[in-house]
Amino acid sequence: MLKAHNKPLKVDKILLASFAPLHILANYYSPLKAALCEIDMHLHWKIFTESEKEKSVLKVAKWFHDEIGLEADNILIQPYHQGGVTYPFNTELPTTEWSDSVYFALALGQRVARGWQIFSSIEEELVAWSNKPNISGATNVQISIDRTE
């Protein structure tokens, strides 16, 4: 059973996926992930921090995951050549449609940062960057989706 605001939400997943406006789907993104059958678009995240302490980076990572409400896979903390570390990870998007994937990626990105800049042809791929994260300890955030996945 899905939950919204800690209350049970009874919903037919086909109706939810087919007829709910996208701004409503974004509000129920975490439960929607579990409700939809086909999920094969991946949003690639890269979080930049100035701290090189693993404990601090993991704390920032936890805050990010709490804000976006999703679990991550392929987690790896890497040193960044300009100082600090990067924390790349992937999350699944609850759609196979390209335009919906771009919408969900940007909606999730706005949960953790503002002032996004897009550095790609949005018809082929999404690469967006923000140097205004809402999460203390992070300096920059990059998100990307490759349409060829």
CATH topology of the largest domain, which one?
Alpha-Beta Plaits
* Total separate domains: 2
Biggest sheet statistics: 6 strands, antiparallel
Chain-averaged pLDDT: 75
Which sequence of strands runs across the widest sheet? 4-5-3-10-8-7
**Distance N terminus to C terminus?**
30 Å
- Helical content (DSSP H or I, runs of 4+): 25-40%
Q: How large is the radius of gyration?
A: 16 Å
**Poorly predicted regions:** 1-39
At the first level of CATH, what is the class of the largest domain? Alpha Beta
Order of helices and strands: EEHHHEHEEHEEEEE
Number of helices: 5
Structure at a glance:
With 149 residues, the chain is α+β, with helices and mostly antiparallel strands. 34% of the residues lie in helices and 32% in strands. The relative contact order is 0.19.
Tell me what you see in this structure.
The protein has 149 residues and is α+β, with helices and mostly antiparallel strands. The protein has 2 domains: 1-37, no CATH class; 39-146, Alpha-Beta Plaits, CATH 3.30.70. Helices cover 34% and strands 32% of the residues. The protein is built from 5 helices and 10 strands; from the N terminus they run E-E-H-H-H-E-H-E-E-H-E-E-E-E-E. The protein has helices at residues 13-19, 22-27, 29-35, 54-68, 98-112; strands at 2-4, 7-9, 41-49, 78-79, 85-93, 113-114, 117-118, 125-130, 132-133, 138-146. A 6-stranded antiparallel sheet has the order 4-5-3-10-8-7. The chain has a two-stranded antiparallel ribbon with strand order 1-2. The longest helix has 15 residues, at 54-68.
